[in-house]
Design goal:
Elements (H helix, E strand, L loop, with lengths): L1 E5 L3 H13 L4 E5 L3 H9 L5 E2 L10 E4 L3 H14 L5 E4 L5 H6 L9 E7 L19 E5 L6 H11 L5 E5 L1 H29 L12 H6 L7 H10 L1 H23 L3 H11 L3 H14 L1
Amino acid sequence: MNIASIGLGLIGGSFALSLKKNFPEIKRFGMDNNPEHLQKALELNIVDHALKDEDLSKMDVVIVSIPVDKASFVIQGVLDKVHSKALVMDMGSTKGELCAAIDKHPKRSQFLAAHPIAGTEFSGPEAAFSSLFNNKTMIFCDIKDTETHLVELAETLISPLEMTLKFMGSRDHDKHLAYVSHLSHISSFMLGKTVLQVEQNDKTIFDLAGSGFASTVRLAKSNPITWTAIFKENKGEVVQALEEYIHNLKAFKAELETENYTDIQQQLTKVNELKPILNGILKKENHGN
């Protein structure tokens, strides 16, 4: 089987490494918009061969892991060139606009919208590792629009990773991810920005920062190109999530100004109900690594 990875950063590179580990007979081809990334991926044995446009007709599976605002254009071009039994699967963090864009493509049934809920704040081929997806969650969207045997092929490729597989509509996916992922990254980026603005003339203040600050702004180390594209593609849902988040922040500020500490404590206690959920997530993350 020939499998191509278009985009050789953390996600694309890690998936290619997992394929090599679990299916050593697979021939892996790779392509990246950054020539240095392609060269590094070849050096690190993330892929076996560089992928050329004329090779696409020979690929049995094509995995697309690129900034989401470029995905629909690239995927339509890939669908134009692959053979009639090939699977084309993307790994992006937004699905609604993508699925709408390719809905009328003649080979739409060969495309599967997938999203592995896995990642780190690092990027590039050097950040890739074969166990990134182990025991994580994989979402398949709009599977009714994909050939059943191709969905089964995708399931086969991820089966050794023991991922939890979930199915949902592309628009529902984007709504939920706006809250549990996209808003988290905005919060991290904006907290980092706020601290930098306030403390720009006194960098020694960071000597006082502890693990709480570091863990909260960890996501601010994420790739700005990747995340600007995500915010762009999921603008509607992200704006709605921000409105609700800002409402809660303003309410908290008002309670603090009026010294309503009883209500503040009650709210914090209520939010503490997240503890078992968060502990479960952390346990799953640690098990996967």
